[in-house]
Amino acid sequence: MIVETEAYSQSEPACHGHRRRSPSNETLFGEPGRFYVYVSYGIHHCVNVVTHRADWANGVLLRAVALPGEQERIGAGPALLARRFGLDRAWDATAATPQEGLWLAPRPQPLAAWLSEATGRPPADLLAAKASSQPAAEAPAVVQTSRIGISQAQELPWRWYLRASRSVSRRAPGDRRPPPAEAWWPKPEDIGTGDALVRWPAGP
């Protein structure tokens, strides 16, 4: 389940397509709904979904995922996410469809219903364990904050993450990671029906 993303646009200098169009970033200028996979620091792969329209570089970086039955930090960062799913440059320009073996699926209904309310702690049936009797905090369910790991346009609040997840790569200043009993965790039945990155077979 995707729990953290970042957006990039040709209009701002942190975007790979801001200065010019090239063979290495061509996918970012292509049709929406494809994966743009690039190499960071010469060793790490990062996976984006191309958005908006063709001939204009826009994409959403997939920063973190949570997976049922797996270590909570296994996909807590773009490089870890790509490694967990076995994604590299060979997946660049691949359409995000089930036919290609890698796609995005809608959120499961219970999670979608909670997120639509925008505030508070997840309902009991979404928690990893039985919650305490402490009242839910009136805080946004999805945190919007600045992007990380870039040197330009750092002021843009174009990163979003699920507050109740313990799999987020880095939290906003002052936002503490929830204790396990109050954290959201995907269930096996959510995968394949969830705002999920799905690969079949599941990984390398």
The beta-strand count equals: 9
Structural class: mainly beta
Q: What can be said about the biggest beta sheet?
A: 7 strands, antiparallel
Helix content: under 10%
User: What number of domains?
Assistant: 1
Rg result: 17 Å
Provide a brief overview of the structure.
8% of the residues lie in helices and 23% in strands. By secondary structure, it is mainly β.
Task: Explain how this protein is built.
The protein is mainly beta. The chain has one domain: Methylpurine-DNA glycosylase (MPG) (3-methyladenine DNA Glycosylase, Chain A, Roll), CATH 3.10.300.10. It is 8% helix and 23% strand. The protein has 2 helices and 9 strands, in the order E-E-E-E-E-H-E-H-E-E-E. The strands form 2 sheets. Strands 1, 2, 3, 4, 5, 7 and 8 form a 7-stranded antiparallel sheet that branches. It has a two-stranded antiparallel sheet with strand order 6-9. The chain is globular. The two termini are 18 Å apart. The relative contact order is 0.21. About 4% of the residues have low confidence.
Keywords:
204 residues; mainly beta; 3-methyladenine DNA Glycosylase, Chain A; seven-stranded antiparallel sheet; 8% helix; 23% strand; globular
